[in-house]
Write a structure and sequence with these properties.
Length: about 150
């Protein structure tokens, strides 16, 4: 990897990229002011949208929260009509959680809202920096699709 003629190791890139990503996460969260939602709620909806129905235990593990916390969160999301619980077709004793059409619509609204606000911010950047961000999209998508399965701290 090379930036500005300087070759970076993966560890050096991680050290530089980490703080930038933290600031970007805060920026992205601030762009959804009309439809605020906790990080775990938002991430859970996105996971359900992307991966389809899931067991509560799997959702809790993917979002790195306890099963009781996920059960409580799903209850709130179900009361809001954005997820539903159904019996697992393979095992009727098990519950699967699915995103509803209302949940998909909420995510779509949030994405449009965020894109408008982010577009305004991007217009403040130079065309060269806009092009660099566009060129980085494939690498950022690949990074976002990776999984870090380290054990949770006890």
């Amino acid at each position: 990897m090379e930036i500005s003629g300087e070759s970076l190791t993966a560890d050096e890139l991680a050290a530089d990229l980490g703080p930038v990503l933290e600031r970007l996460i805060l920026l992205i969260r601030s762009l959804n002011i009309l439809n605020p939602m906790s990080r775990t709620s938002s991430a859970t909806l996105v996971t359900l949208e992307r991966n389809g129905p899931s067991r509560l235990t799997a959702l809790a593990a993917s979002e790195r929260v306890s099963q009781p916390a996920m059960t409580q969160l799903i209850g709130k999301l179900e009361d809001a009509g954005i997820v539903r619980r159904d019996a697992d077709p393979a095992d009727g004793r098990v519950v699967q959680v699915s995103i509803t059409d209302a949940g998909r619509a909420l995510l779509a609204i949030r994405r449009v809202e965020r894109a408008k606000r982010l577009g305004t911010l991007l217009m403040q950047l130079s065309p060269a920096h806009q092009e660099l961000l566009a060129a980085a999209l494939p690498a950022l998508n690949e990074l976002a699709d990776t999984s870090y399965d380290a054990p949770l701290p006890s």
